[in-house]
Each structure stands twice: as structure tokens, then as C-alpha cells.
Amino acid sequence: MIGIMKYLSCCYRDWCISRQLWWGHRIPAYQVSFRNGHPKNQKADSHTMWVSGRCYQEALEKAAAQLNVNEEHLELTQDDDVLDTWFSSALFPFAVHGWPSQTDDLDRFYPSTLLETGHDIIFFWVARMVMMGQKLTGRLPFKEVYLHSMVRDAHGRKMSKSLGNVIDPVDVIQGASLEDLHARLEGNLLDPAEKERSRRGQAADYPRGIPECGTDALRFTLCTYKAQGEDVNLDVNTVQTYRFFCNKIWNAALFTLNALPDNFEPSPIREMLADCSIMDQWILSRLSDTTATINNGFHGYDFPIITGAIHKFWVQNLCDVYLESIKLSLRADDHRAVVSRNVLHTCVYAGLRLISPFMPYLSEEIFQRLPRRPEREEPSICVAPYPTTEEFPMFDGSLEERVALSLDIVNRIRSIQKEFGIPKLSGHIVCNNDDLRGVLSQLCPTMATLSRCRKLQMTNQEPDHCLATTVASDCALFVEMKDIDVPRVLERLQAKLAKTSTGLNKIEAQRSMDSYEDKVPQNIREKHDQQIEVLQADSARLSAAVAMLKTAR
Q1: What is the DSSP secondary-structure string of 98-136?
Q2: Per-residue DSSP letter, 80
Q3: Going by DSSP bridges, is the β-strand pair 466-472/455-459 parallel, antiparallel, or unpaired?
Q4: What is the b/e burial string over 386-409, where b = at least 16 CB atoms within 10 angstroms of the residue's CB?
Q5: Which residues are within 8 A (CB) of 371 and not within 5 positions of it... i.e. 6 or more apart?
Q6: 282-317 pLDDT per residue, tens
């Protein structure tokens, strides 16, 4: 507020609104001169006379009235300069709709709802649009202003040609080799020392060039960063990660299309809810919850929440769990397979509409290939209705908790197989909760499929010669010891734990130095924090595995 008041207090100075540019609104000012043959007029000859007008005729009438002569004796020449860019931009909200004429577009589209811009031009542009809108139309040009973050390089530095760290969006979209990046420096007006510094900077940041990531991945990446008020440290490697996410969506859609029979016509999913399996119900519940999260995020302009929910649904829920759990059932030719195909189609169809604002090209390409019900033959995903919880009201929190427990069992089995070097283990689940036991019994085949274990079954009593791990207060997992070479695995885990502890102690020693906060750059400190977080998680996991083996012995 102090900055705003200080700015407004300095607005008493005149504003030079003319610029010598090739584009813009030409200044509506005209220099007046007499045509040949007209007697001299002292008022016109004594100084250069200018008039303004909305058009040539209006200016001509003004000049004739001031000089008290007929219009045919005067000749007007319009100023070659254009209005200051910010002056023209201030007219943008209503000028694009035909103002000053009262057009249908002006009545329909003005004022608008939201302006999206950067905080660095609030006074250059936003304030002037507000003032011009109030003055010339009597209405505010928009109701809300969303301020996006400023984009910096991966190290948090301001992009500069002299540093060679400018990221051209076209290079991220189409890709560029290191040689191409170096070649473009030759066209810049930099001195030799700055060019050499730029080459070194490019070689350090992009030793293999910039990979081709595409428009959708770049747009999605920018929306994943934290919202207003914080700078974005754009890392091309992060953009490439979301390019791989695009590939995952494409592969999931391709799997879906291959799983659907010829002439497939999807049925309304509500008609099939009674026949859905637990995993069918679970993925529909996840779709409902994801839809609610995304719509709430849009209302609050919380794009990181939205993109996080989209990524979690497509990767962790749909691809990693649901698709893997139904692969065997889709091969059958029974009613269960029919239901699963419809559920899968529903999730992909809704998932494409959810990502459409962020990935319009990818979602449109898949959308045009996906079968749709006759009553929903939208020509483009751009005009398809956005998913709502009214369309998908299937959220079931209790079911999700139980499936989450089964997925926890799956993760524990995978972790044991990885840490102990067991390709496929045999496991038993003991559960003292009758309701939970019923759900886990139905999910045993699914858990075995997801964990890729040899055998997994429910038992009423704790089996002998097994490695035990507690899943919940009333549920435990037992792994058969016959699959584990305990001495060899224990030795390997203890060696990994010692190496992890050494790395953790080394970083902790650096952080404990008195000059750490002052001398170590911010990006290095953040990297150390991330490394400590990973090492602490690894240490906890390895310690738990070692303790488990020692207890079993």
C-alpha cells in the first residue's frame, strides 16, 4: 500500500504519450496548413497550428472554425508518431471490441472477468487500464487480477543474454542442440568476453542441448510451480519429466483403445455401478475426488493443486494401479470385462477433459480417437463440458481407506523384494477385523498382481518361519523365510546403511559450520536439504529392514 501511495503521489508530472515506433495507435493530431492560392493568415503563419480529432473530418472542422475560413482552403497532415505503448495498451479491454462504437461485442464481452499478468507492470498497464476504463466507459475493465510468477533459470538467476541463461520457449518446445544455442549468440550484440561467458553458461546448463518437450509439457510445467508472489526457477529437466508424463497419458489411451472392442459404444456408468468390482468402485471414487479437488483449485486459482491432482490421478491411480489390476480381467469375455471396459473408458474420457486446459493438443488428439456415446458427440474437447462432481458423485472415503491399506501391503511386499533381493516371495495376511478381512480377501489376487509376488493369501493364524511386518493395528503381513538368504541380505543391508549414514553425517557437518548460512549459496543449501531428506528416508527404511531380519533370526 505504501508503494501504491508513493506512486500515485508522483503522478502530477506530464506524461509524454508519443513514440517513434513502427506500430501502435497513430496519434490523432493534425498539423494545419493552407492550400496554394489562399491569402496569408497571420494566425496560421505566426506559429505551427495543431488540432486533434477522432478522424480527419472532425479535425478539419475544428481547424476551419478556429481560423474562420472555409474547409476547402485547409490541408491537414497527421502526426507520424504513435501513442505510447502503455497508452494504447490501456485502451485494450474495450478498444478490441470496437469502441468507441457501441458494438454487440462491446456489450457482450466488456467488462471481462479476469486479467492475468505479471506484478512488474501493475502500474504501467493494470492501473492505466482501470483509469481508462472508468474514464471512457464508466466501468471497470475486469473484476479480478491474477499475477503470475516471474520466470528465472534453474539456479534462480534472472535471465540475461550476457549470462547465456535465457530460455527461449521455442527451444524447449522444439528442442535445440548445444551448437544451435552457441550459433545464436553470434547474432547478438555482445562483446567477445560476454559471448564467451554465455557459451560457458550454456555448456554448463545444457551440455546435451535442450530436449524437445512440446507445448503441452511446457504449459503444464509452468502451472505446477508455486503461485503468486514467488519466482519460478524453470528447470528444463522438469519440463522433460512432464513430457514423459504426456507419453504415459498417450500410452494409457492407446492401451484403452486396444482394450475396447470394435464398434464399442460406452454405456452410462451409473447403470453399471451395481456390477462394479472393488477396484472399479475405487477408481471411480478417485475420479470423483480428483474432480472435486480440481474444480476447487480453479475457483481459487491454485494451479499447483490442480496439476498435482491431475498427475496423481493419471499416474498413481489410473496407470500404476487400476490398469495393472484389470489387465487379466480385460482378456476375458464376460460381464465383468464389459464393466471394466466401461469404467476404463469413463476414466480416460473424463481424464482427458480434466487435462484439456493444460494439454489441449494431446487431449484433442486422443479425444478424436475415443468412442463416445451418441448423445455426447462433441466436435472438439474444447467445447466438451468440464467434469463436475454432479457427473461423478461416486466418492467413497471408507472404500478408499481400505484399498489404501491393500496398496500399503503391495508397497511393503515390493520393498521387501527389492531390499532383500527376492524376485518373488510368498506372503500371508492375518487380519482380526472381519469387515477388513472380507475386503482384503477379495483384493488378494489384485495385490498379488500389483506386487508381482509368487503367492499371497489370507490366513487366520500367524504362520511359522515367517518375517512379520505390521500393516495396521489389526492387520499384519508375513513373508516366508525360505525365500530369503538372511546372512547375505543382512550383510548387504548393513553395508548400505553404513554408506547412507556416512553421507548424511558429511552433509550435516557442512550445515553445522558457523559460516554456512552466509557463504553457501541458496541453491546449494536447498540441494543439501533435499539430499538430507532422501538420505534420512533411506536410513529409516534400511534400519527397519535390518531390524526385521535380526528379529526373525
Answers
A1: TTTS--HHHHHH-S-SEEEEEGGGIIIIIHHHHHHHHHH
A2: S
A3: unpaired
A4: ebeeebbebbbeebeebbebbbeb
A5: 260, 264, 265, 266, 345
A6: 999 999 999 999 999 999 999 999 999 999 999 999
Say if pTM beats, i.e. exceeds, 0.90: no
> Is the Cβ–Cβ distance between 31 and 47 less than 8 Å?
no
Burial class (CB in 10 A: 0-12, 13-18, 19+), 482: exposed
Question: Exposed, middle or buried, 255 (CB in 10 Å: 0-12/13-18/19+)?
Answer: middle
CB atoms closer than 10 angstroms to residue 438: 13
Residues 430 and 410: beta-carbon distance below 8 Å: no
Q: How far apart are CA 355 and CA 308, in angstroms?
A: 11
The C-alpha cell 507492470 sits at 121
The one-letter code for the residue type at 40 is K
Q: Give me the residue label for grid cell 516371495.
A: 425
Phi and psi at residue 470, to the nearest 5° = -80, 130
Length of the chain: 553
**In degrees rounded to 5, what are phi and psi of residue 481?**
-70, -20
E strand or H helix that includes residue 238: helix 236-259
Residue 537 cell numbers, joined: 528416508
pLDDT in tens, 345-374: 999 999 999 999 999 999 999 999 999 887
Say how far apart CA 517 and CA 40 lie, in whole Å: 79
Q: Provide the total of helices (H) and of strands (E) in the chain, helices listed first.
A: 22, 13
Asked whether the CA dihedral 315, 320, 322, 324 is positive or negative, the reply is positive
